[in-house]
Amino acid sequence: MAARALSKANIISVYRYTSLGTGVINFSGRGRFLYRPACKMASTKVSGPPASLLKPINVPNKTLMGPGPSNASARVLAANSLPLLGHLHPEFCTIMDEIKAGVQYAFQTKNEWTFAISGTGHAAMEASIVNVVERGEVFLSACKGIWGERAAGIAERQGADVRKIVKPLGEVFTLEDIEKGLQEHKPAALYLCHSESSSGILQPLEGVGPLCAKYNCILIVDTVASLGGVPFFLDDLDLDVVYSGSQKVLSAPPGSAPITFGPRARAKIMNRKTPVASYYFDAKCLSNYWGCDDGPRGYHHTGPISSMYALREALAGLAEEGLEACWARHKECAEHLYKGVEEMGLQMLVKNKDWRLPTVNTICVPEGVDWKAVTVYVMKKYAIEISGGLGPSAGKVWRIGLMGENAKKEKIDQVLKALKEGDRKSVV
Description:
It is built from 14 helices and 16 strands. It is of the alpha/beta class. It has a seven-stranded mixed sheet with strand order 4-12-11-10-7-5-6, sandwiched between helices. The chain has a three-stranded antiparallel sheet with strand order 13-16-15, covered by helices on one side. The chain is globular. The N terminus is likely disordered.
């Protein structure tokens, strides 16, 4: 038996030979070695490159007057093309520190745990919930549009016991509504959207923070579509977790999301019974990476360098204009839009002006008008984006965004002209 006569050295030699893909050795239970030649591999050819990628990228210039993103300034766009740095290089850490200071200014807070999530507003929403809500805890979502429903869905995926309080489209929650919900459900956290962009509602926040503290509930506030566009004093309002997005009033590209955790939220995180379910969104790790604690910065993830450049420049623009001037500009532009809408014979969805979100405005679609045809007409003829409704407002309203670079009267006049033409041409 030739196989039995193989020495140990020969066995190793045969193994090396066959491991190259030329054959296989089978070891039988009787100490025999059986060699089976391998089949020849079919020759493999590399597929050709996609033809579309062999052409220059085509990006048309459009005026983005929908619910976001908004157009970015030349300054912000230029920042995106600056040379890359390492995510822990001292120069980039300095930029991160400047972003922290800018976010604190925009929120009007002194919270130490203030930074930007590497992701869009949805990422910040998920980060807020996953940090302060543990599996099985009650999470109460105040739903008056799509974002309350979205927050509830995220919390449910994370294993929370999700409850809801609901308001009809175009209405806000009162302190009495909220206290009733806190008493009935006894939640560990309450989600409340300050800027409900699906309905154009600006939720009053006065008194909500202390009310949640009274019931030992962490308050999470969504300011994605309002930060920088309306007066907002986070510390005075006594809010626990607040987040926003870069692509709305700040007019930076999507991909970074300002967020801040107050003292009660930090205490809740530090005293969790279980680890935060998401490593990427763990606020303790992120606060260290952002230099918010006393320890040396550690590697957590590779930050989106260019996106942070853009956010830094967007915050610099806000600082140079000044918050009060920026708030006033957005209010003035919203009033200009309201007047034009009324002159066209159209109606705003939110009747109470105090409840209107000036940055994302909802206009009722008249009976007999094809809302979609209007948006298509406006885009095709003028390269202007306006949007239809979203979630419960779908098919009922147009949404017009007046945010950051686009909060200018001349742009509003263009939108009103295009909307008027489209409205006349789209009667069904």
